[in-house]
């Protein structure tokens, strides 16, 4: 079949170089990934709780805003615990000052923007008071790891969450890609994370991103009283 | 049956308060766990290679003494990558200055001290030149992790190795316990590591130490070209 390009389509194609083409029923959504600041702690706290709900582990949730605030921001970004915040807005973002990490901005076309039942709770604007339309949609928390065989650092992704009404729009990939991009920038040789074996959608998604699921390895965990017992030097 | 205590046994029991009782055929071995220094890099490099051999992954071994030296000692101990060195000696250790971590010393009784075919290669004495009888027997490399549900840090143990001729003497437990003890001291809530599922001896050993093996979780790993692809911001 011969392909024909209508003048309207050609104009649209040219226009798409500057801005994405919006099809009927599609919406433009501005997205930004930036470093978290202590002002984000209330949102981070609620996002972690939502993750505990998703994993049926709310009984393990003891984090407080205070425990997060006192532990997350003690080292320069990427040297220890680091949090990226994903924000969305229907308007372009104002610039923010962030010398340690240039925020990643993308304009995405989404077929449908579901009403955000928690829009008020997750209203951002913590960085720029004029950004009154900015909503926190997700986060990723990661920390340096070490690849002994390569003698090089890597990143271990501890948690990644995109809020329910913003899922299936590529935002999870955007967050994980931001960590991978940062790893490459820093000459790191590995990005690792854990996934529940029953979460087949997540596994498919990670494999599509180029990750390998290591079937032979198991995680060992020492916590609670079993860990505290080692506080006594006479164990 | 009435119990009787012979004068010789009573004397031995009293003596054991000061020094362990040595049975016929047993040997005293002095052990010490201390923080690694840059001078340990050649030994760390060789130990990591032995680990690659054990895991049948020498094809992944690209670490050099230089890559280890430039990446392992850039942060204060316990804030980022941290290495404990296990040393053994047939003589008591001389004191070393180590304000960040008071070395852990134990005198152990071993039934048999096998000849160490690599004694010369792993001769320590890097801390104190008078310690000419000190041999590096193993190491553990660990790094802070983050327990989001608790809002607290933890440790992730990246690698642990006891050299072949020093195995089955409790030294692996000693190294892992030192990490756990440090975690408790710092108010950390978790120590985690990975184990190969076929390494049933290791799993049994870890469970005896109080660890739980998480059967549901799988490790995802992004490395090599798949990772490097994210270095291009247009992924």
Write the layout of secondary structure elements.
The structure is a homodimer of 235-residue chains.
Chain A: H1 7-18, E1 27-35, H2 41-54, H3 65-71, E2 82-89, E3 104-110, E4 135-147, E5 152-162, H4 171-185, E6 190-196, H5 200-208, E7 212-214, E8 217-223, H6 224-228
Parallel strand pairs in A: 5-6
Antiparallel strand pairs in A: 1-2, 1-3, 2-4, 4-5
Explain this structure.
Chain A contains six helices and eight strands. Chain A is an alpha+beta fold and 235 residues long. The first copy, chain A, has a six-stranded mixed beta sheet with strand order 3-1-2-4-5-6, sandwiched between helices. In chain A, a hairpin with a 4-residue loop joins strand 4 and strand 5. The longest helix of chain A has 15 residues. Chain A is globular and about 65 Å long. The N terminus of chain A is likely disordered. Strand 8 of chain A pairs antiparallel with strand 7 of chain B, so a sheet runs across the interface.
